[in-house]
Hints:
The structure is a single chain. Helices cover 56% and strands 6% of the residues. A hairpin with a 2-residue loop joins strand 1 and strand 2. The longest helix is centred in the middle third of the chain and has 15 residues, at 36-50. Mean pLDDT is 77; it is low at 1-21. The chain has six helices and two strands. It has one domain (15-104). It is mainly alpha-helical. The chain has helices spanning 12-20, 23-30, 36-50, 58-68, 77-82, 94-104; strands at 2-4, 7-9. Helix 3 (36-50) crosses helix 4.
Amino acid sequence: MAELRGGPVLSPVTSRCVLLVEGDDEKRFFQNHAIMPFVDEYTFRVKQTMKADAPKNESKAKMQTFLAGMKECVPHLGIAAGKGYWNFDSAALDELRAFILELTRHF
């Protein structure tokens, strides 16, 4: 983990993973993966069954379910990124790439 002005910051790979998991980017990024219908179904059924005790962070729960479906299950987003589980060239990340590039211009 790098340090910037005395405090820890996320690595570029970790930052991309953390930022891509929520909202519309999540839907666009994963929609074409073969296991996503099963991840969505599982998440839906967990919410139905567990009600108030269902995971509070649905995006994180989906990400963990997705990772559990990979050939080699890994518990961390950064490790999964290193194994190539995500296509970082996806058009779904264009806006995120532009945002990161803009941030780097200020350092």
